[in-house]
User: Which sequence fits this backbone?
């Protein structure tokens, strides 16, 4: 499957302001951005997801995913 940056912008852009406080949006966005090689943007999305999560185990999972990104 090929994913193009323009598609990522359409799918993950700031279209829905209510999603900015919804952790699954940020985690899914980070995964999608990782798949298209936008690691800096993915890292930022993980950072937001980590900040929104209250469960320590989920935070650790997200932190591991974030730290696995290539520089």
Assistant:
């Amino acid at each position: 499957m090929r994913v193009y940056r323009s598609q990522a912008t359409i799918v993950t852009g700031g279209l829905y302001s209510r999603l900015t406080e919804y952790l699954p949006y940020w985690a899914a966005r980070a995964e999608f951005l990782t798949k298209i090689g936008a690691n800096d943007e993915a890292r930022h999305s993980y950072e937001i997801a980590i900040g929104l999560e209250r469960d320590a185990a989920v935070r650790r999972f997200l932190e591991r995913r974030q730290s696995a990104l290539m520089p």
In short: Residues 5-67 form one domain. The mean pLDDT is 83. The chain is about 65% helix and 0% strand. Helices lie at 5-12, 23-35, 39-52, 56-67.
